[in-house]
Automatic annotation (TrEMBL):
It is a multi-pass membrane protein. It comes from Vasconcelosia minhoensis LEGE 07310. Belongs to the MscS (TC 1.A.23) family. GO terms for biological process: transmembrane transport. The keyword Transmembrane applies. This is Mechanosensitive ion channel.
């Protein structure tokens, strides 16, 4: 009769602990959201204008996610304090490990989102305001490596705090990889070439490309070892090893994107010729440092409305790019340049408004 009684007591204790843990989770998440709200109020009323501006642009849009991170930090501390120090249960690790893993993933997501806000609000603006060409491809790489660094740091921290020798694991994999590399060098070159193509994306399926050996056609598939190109004219299928492609000069006809951006400036009065020249100079100087903007084709046309005694300026920009990410960044840089145009013209006392939104028209390069 003793064993069933002990089993009943054990089940009762486990149920009570489970209910207590569930209640603790609910309370902790409420406290986390309250903490983020208190942080918001403290910065709003006590911080300097610079800190307020940074918080409102970067952190406040992710305030709920920040509250979840605060709650998970508190929950991880409570689990460690309650289960390990007080109860000293043998299954402490089975409770603590998933909590810490969720905390690590949430912290990584928060770090990535905060960097995205900082990148969009500050780095792009700084790149546009600098006197140098704003290289959007470099900005794309900086964004990628920043997110990669966040993942690596969190993975190493999680591994070291849970007795996972991440560095030793990577080292052992590296030693074993050397032996495999020597025995299958050519195959690995082709596989690595495929990885490079997938990451760098010099072309995509259905793009028309040209190679130095006069091969020209449409990409039908991109494999890990080779790429298949349907040649124009003959219609045959050329199978090219990926390691040969990454070492060749590839001419991508489809990926040479061109987007025409049309911006309308509506002035409240008629603009004389001398002020038109000033406006044209301000627009050209504000956009000439944007990398990927074909400044030679920037066109500014003034139209007079004699009935309303007003002038409208139609400004046409041509944005060149090689991918969706770089094109989006260049559009953001152009939006920042538009803000600079507005600020400078208002300093000269020229009042106007900008028609929203800016019109973007795809203008693909003819093959």
């Amino acid at each position: 009769m003793l064993t069933p009684v002990l089993e009943t007591v054990r089940e009762s204790i486990l149920i009570q602990i489970s209910l207590l843990f569930a209640g603790t989770v609910a309370v902790v998440f409420a406290v986390g959201q309250l903490g983020s709200l208190l942080l918001n109020l403290s910065i709003k009323y006590l911080a300097t204008p610079e800190v307020k501006g940074f918080y409102s642009k970067v952190i406040e849009p992710r305030r709920r996610l920040l509250g979840s991170v605060i709650a998970l930090v508190l929950l991880d501390g409570i689990v460690w304090l309650f289960f390990k120090l007080f109860l000293q249960v043998p299954w402490y690790r089975s409770v603590e490990l998933p909590v810490t893993l969720v905390l690590t993933l949430t912290l990584g997501w928060l770090g990535s989102r905060l960097f995205k806000e900082y990148f969009d609000r500050y780095l792009l603006d700084a790149a546009a305001r600098s006197g140098r060409k704003a290289n959007s491809e470099f900005l794309v790489l900086a964004k990628f490596f920043a997110n990669f660094a966040i993942v690596v740091i969190l993975a190493l921290t999680f591994g070291q705090t849970h007795d996972f020798n991440v560095i030793g694991l990577l080292a052992s994999l590296g030693v074993g990889g050397l032996a495999v590399a020597f025995s299958a060098q050519k195959v690995l070159e082709q596989l690595l070439g495929g990885v490079v193509i997938y990451i760098d994306r010099p072309f995509s399926v259905d793009d028309y490309i040209g190679l130095p050996d006069s091969t020209y056609g449409r990409v039908e598939s991109i494999g890990l070892r080779s790429t298949k190109i349907r040649t124009s004219g003959k219609g045959t299928l050329a199978i090219v090893p990926n390691n040969a492609l990454i070492q060749s000069t590839i001419e991508n006809f489809t990926g040479a994107k061109k987007v025409m951006a049309i911006l309308y400036l509506n002035f409240y009065r008629r603009i004389p010729q001398d002020e038109q020249a000033l406006i044209r100079q301000v627009i050209l100087e504000s956009t000439q440092d944007i990398f990927g903007l074909d400044a030679r084709n920037t066109d500014i046309v003034f139209e007079e409305n004699l009935e309303l005694q007003r002038t409208q300026a139609q400004t046409t920009f041509f944005i060149l790019g090689s991918g969706d990410v770089s094109m989006n960044i260049r559009r953001q840089l152009l939006d920042i340049a538009n803000q600079n145009i507005t600020r400078q013209l208002k300093e000269y006392g020229i009042a106007f408004d900008i028609e929203e939104p800016t019109i973007y028209v795809d203008s693909p390069i003819t093959i």
